[in-house]
Amino acid sequence: MLAFKNTTLRRSNHVLFSDSSFTLFQGQKIGLTGENGSGKSSIFLLLLKQLEVDKGEVFLPSDKVIAFVEQEIQHQQLSALEYVLTGDQTLFHITQEFEKNSTTIDGEQLALLHQKMEEADAYTAKSRAAKLLSGLGFLENQLNNKVSSFSGGWQMRLNIAKALMCRSDILLLDEPTNHLDLEAVEWLESYLKNYTGTLILISHDRDFLDNIVDRILHIDNQKLYLYNGNFSSFEKQQAEKLLLQKSQHEKQQKKIKHMEQFITRFKAKASKAKQAQSRVKALSRLERILPTQTASDFQIHFFESTNAPHDLLSLHNVALGYNNRAIVEHVNLKLFCGDKIGILGINGAGKSTLIKAIANEIGCLSGEIMRNQNLQVAYFNQNLLDQLDLESTPILFLKPLAIGFTDLALRSYLARFKFDETKINQTIGSLSGGEKARLVLSSLIMKKPNLLLLDEPTNHLDMKTRDALNIALQEYAGATILVSHDRYLLNCVCDKFLLVADNSVSEFNGNLIDYRNYRKERELTKLTRPSTNENNLSNKVRRQKAAELRKKLQPIKNQIKSIETKIETLNLSLSNINDKLSDTRFYNSDNNKDELNSLLIEQSSLNKTLTINEEIWLELNSDLESLEQELKAEE
Fold first, then answer.
1. How many other CB atoms are there within 10 angstroms of residue 171's CB atom?
2. pLDDT tens digit string along 601-616?
3. CA angle, 256 as apex, 251 and 258 as ends, to 5°?
4. What is the pTM for the complete model shown?
């Protein structure tokens, strides 16, 4: 259903890939991988017809609906729920038509509109949209908040939900986990496993790819290669391919050396000149096998801290929060050099608040944090990327931290983080998200910390950089506290976990699988326990909710009244026709044959229309009854 045939794509004068072919079929789940800048996002732009190929062809049936996550937010004044509903374009247009015409059209047209809405699953749409938002971490009381009230990261979650709401044949997702926490990542993973269309997923999260995709489309050395299996299977195949390439490269180099020696030795001899010239031509035609390049080409190493005390800090009966409202209380924690701690907990539980307090960015509401006088903290948080001076350059950004570094040493240090001579003098604003993240990491390492606080450090990092960071953190001699949605990183780096839940911080005895089971048990308990939320609502909120419910009742009552009038008219018309058809004299003359056929056709049409209206009437009355019961409970 989707194919590239001998396709070449350039951006400016740079070839992203050339003469590449592959075919994808309905229902396949593809992981699109490759280094940053290799052309992954450009493939998406090709499929969305925002780019054209330079050579070859892209086959994509015109009737296929493609869903993708938009980078911009439209309709800022809509509620979160309304915004997600716009993702279902079919339903969106029918709903607009209904809202525009429901009070002006006749009963039959209204019945047809209701039929269209039913076929578009209009009556379950809000429920489906609410489930998407809930899975992505939105609370029930946030669903009616305006889109403009959410931060950039949460607006991206809204765009993900909007894309998932679309009735798509092909779903394109570019790093969808960047703005998600661990819980939302696992929910999205489960959702995508059940997606019936063709999924093309760009991600640098190993576990996420492994658990979803069944094929890997890899961009390497300006070529596209399709591999069967998940990411782990791809890595094995890639390793085997690299070993074979290395062996073939070494053999070819020996052959080239032998040919060059022959040419050098005999090119001046008349008896051998012809053979030497033949080898010169053979060398010029020889397709060179490239030497292999592996992830080890990029490495991260932490400087050894000048002071590494055993006891780094301790929290004694600490309460943390904002505006005198505690998020977590009675926190007692001791941190020692060499600790590798992962922090678990749902969004909003207080994970980032705890890290900010340890970093001394916020104070305690009560209790005390005791810090060793030689404590040296490096704190990575996502806001750092937003706070970079976009007019500065990488080398100017690091200079204040590079005490004792010569200019040459600083350039060499930046080169270790893949900043060449061109990049080090480029404005930070022109760098990619991954390059900015590497720059921030380089600045943290230069501080020679004995405590690393990392809040989602892998966002925007490609696979090689993630692997390098993973290895560096395992070798790091200081203490690490890590919040991440990257399960592979958490499993590799952390030797213990803290759980932030129920306004407290406690040690979690188990691994990430145990944590997933713990969350499932809590969710099950919540479902089986009677909800107390409604009982806790204030009288003001109850009155507001009751008013909203009454507001919803009247349009439904009006629709029911309109449908009842229509049903009454239809029954009257049917009764008249049935009276005519029951008269035996009506069948005694051939002169009545045409009129008889006409009456039978009209009878069939009226019965069909009556059935539709009766079904709508039943549905509306069911909705009315539910709303009236809900209103009664509120009053």
1. 22
2. 787 778 778 777 777 7
3. 95
4. 0.72
